[in-house]
Amino acid sequence: MWNNRSVETLLSLALGISLSAASGFRIFVPPLVMSILSHTAFYDPSANLAWMESPLATTAFAVATLLEIGAYYIPWLDHLLDLVATPVAAVAGILMTGAFAVDLDPTLRWTLAIIAGGGAASGIQMLTNVTRLASSATTGGLGNPVVATTENAAATVLSLLALFLPFIAFAAVVGLLWFAVSRTLRFRQKQIPRT
Predict the structure, then answer these.
(1) What is the rounded end-to-end Cα distance, in angstroms, of the chain?
(2) At a CB cut-off of 8 Å and minimum separation 6, what does 118 contact?
(3) Closest CA to 121 of 10, 25, 12
(4) What is the pLDDT of residues 71-111, one digit of tens each?
(5) Sign (positive/negative) of CA torsion 175, 169, 136, 79?
(6) pTM of the predicted model as reported, rounded to 2 decimal places
């Protein structure tokens, strides 16, 4: 019933969706982690991602990551960045899942990339938005650097977990998305005035 190709396809989807979710925390962390690890024996990118092994790609991802991470520590800029990051994270998630699901029929590949990859990145980004809004409301923005540090760590850990243990990373993503949806619904219920 399960052949090697089926397992490899599931592995690729778990990897792509998990990296897409990590993009919801920080857009440039997953490609940076992949690019750095491609210079080691720990990760050998597929042919369509071989360009990530170039020093130029690693440098570009490192600079973009530092700028993205740094911007989240500037008060009020973090909220503005969330407005921009939400659609960009969805696109990054789509591209990330699509890059790993290369063995699928193109229609299925991009449908899954849009729904699962874009959905995972958007769901995690939604969680970060709600968390930052709650932090701003309760701490006047003073707690936002703690939120940003947690998001940075989550993006890095999830990216590493996706590359080394994709099925466990996928299980973590499912749990995070469940938490994101429930927390967002709770947050919205508090915002609706009772009549």
Answers:
(1) 56
(2) 20, 90, 91, 93, 94, 97
(3) 25
(4) 999 877 887 888 888 899 999 999 999 999 888 899 999 99
(5) negative
(6) 0.88
CA Rg value for the chain: 17
Scan for tokens 């508090």, then name that residue.
Answer: 190
Q: How far is CA 139 from CA 66, 79, 147, 153, 186, in A?
A: 25, 14, 11, 21, 19
d(CA 98, CA 87): 17
DSSP-assigned letters across all residues of 45-84:
--GGGGGGGSHHHHHHHHHHHHHHHHHTTSTTHHHHHHHH
Q: Phi/psi at 76 (nearest 5 deg)? A: 70, -25
Q: What is the pLDDT of residue 131?
A: 87
Per-position DSSP letters for 17-49, written without gaps between them = HHHHHHHHH-SSHHHHHHHHHTTSSS----GGG
